[in-house]
Design brief:
The chain is mostly beta strands and 244 residues long. It contains 2 helices and 16 strands.
Length: 244
Amino acid sequence: MNLKYTLFALICCLCYFAVYAQDSTEQKPVKLRQHVYPSIGGDGPILTFGDVKYGGEHVSTVPRFTFFFNMGRNYNYDVTKWFGIFSGINIKNIGIITKASDSLDIKLKRRVYTLGVPFGIKIGDVRGQNFFFFLGGQYDLAFNYKEKQFVDGKKVKKFNEWFSDRTPLLMPSLFAGFRFYPGIGLKVQYYPNDFFNKDYKQTVAGVATYPYRNVAAKIFLVTLTYDFRDPWIKNYGHFRHLHH
């Protein structure tokens, strides 16, 4: 628990510095450094597919679409005209929707907000931004969990937890995709580890239970991404001229 509250404090500090940096750029545009430059980018609309098994048996799932609340900021280093690397920080909303059965209209919607740090490579016209491929890996920190239960289309139960033990605290993933002018792209992302924490314990009527012990849940995302040059950065044209 102490680790979680420490990470929560770190997130608050990151958000404070991000706001402070934005206020500073509004007062005075920042000149672009020769090699490293920032861009406003992250995940836009996300379509999530779940593969869920309970006791080895498949559970019916529903693709989950979300647009809110996904955003981020990237930092880029173009090694050559055709190759670059990038990292950054982003927030996104991911989750799973499961159905009890085809005959019973009971749905469980479970999602987490995550703070992620990607690291990847770009191959293609990385300076001209016309078209390039990208791939890499990412670590997400799950900081908010929400669960909703629906019966016959009506919401009957809902709860929300900060730094819940129901999911792993850290969620690694792999991603790949492509981007084209003016900064829109398509990305696929796979989380190889289970969405739920099998060691999560809860006490019901004085009896300790492990609700996710026999659950295997993997998620796969298809995302419309964006990555636009920061409007407060000057001399992008000078940067391109220096390195072409």
